[in-house]
Design brief:
The protein is an alpha/beta fold and 203 residues long. Helix content is 32%, strand content 9%.
Length: 203
């Protein structure tokens, strides 16, 4: 723990510390302030460090300014909400990878369409969500593992981020890897007692 960094302490010192902690076999994936102006993304103070920069600005126009001033590969997240957004960003040379969140995109079907396009465009793909537990993690994991291996970037084991586990059957992560359930469907046994009151009933 390097302790708090003062306003006059160079960020390069933090980079050296982070590099020493994670070792040379792991990637660094910092996230810029999404809603900051483009100067926040390009003036990130990370010098020649080897890393991917995610979502430096909210708009594609601002991202284009960062792209021109930043040598690091860019991953876009919130600014990609549709097939049209992805096509526009790729045509402008604004991204090297994309983060697809199920809730933001409208579910698995829409996320899969963007995933397939991203793979066809040769982009690295991250599949995750805005949060969740076992059910959500199973959905993102199945979609991630159905992505061609060469295009996979990373995903998130949200089930380990929360205190309420809403299903059984999700394999535990091990050594930084995650696997999907093998039973039919999502492969889970839902713990209905964790879901609260019934909202509606169909059929």
């Amino acid at each position: 723990d390097p302790g708090p960094r003062g306003a006059d302490q160079p960020r390069e010192a933090d980079i050296v510390t982070i590099g020493a902690v994670i070792g040379g076999d792991h990637g660094v994936h910092p996230r810029a302030r999404t809603r900051g102006p483009s100067r926040d993304g390009s003036g990130n103070g990370m010098g020649e460090a080897d890393y991917y920069l995610e979502q430096p600005c909210m708009t594609l126009a601002e991202t284009a300014r960062v792209r021109a001033a930043c040598r690091q590969p860019l991953i876009l997240d919130e600014s990609i909400g549709s097939l049209e957004d992805l096509i526009e960003a790729h045509a402008g040379g604004l991204l090297d990878g994309v983060t697809l969140k199920l809730a933001r995109l409208g579910g698995l079907t829409k996320a899969r369409r963007l995933r397939d396009l991203a793979v066809a465009l040769g982009l690295r793909v991250t599949i995750e969500d805005t949060g969740g537990s076992d059910i959500d993690t199973a959905a993102t994991t199945h979609l991630m593992l159905s992505t061609p291996e060469a295009a996979r970037f990373h995903t998130v084991d949200f089930m380990n981020w929360v205190t309420v586990r809403n299903a059984e059957g999700m394999p535990q992560t091990a050594d930084g890897f995650i696997s999907a359930p093998t039973a039919p469907g999502l492969g889970l046994r839902v713990r209905t007692e964790t879901l609260g009151e019934l909202v509606c009933e169909a059929g």
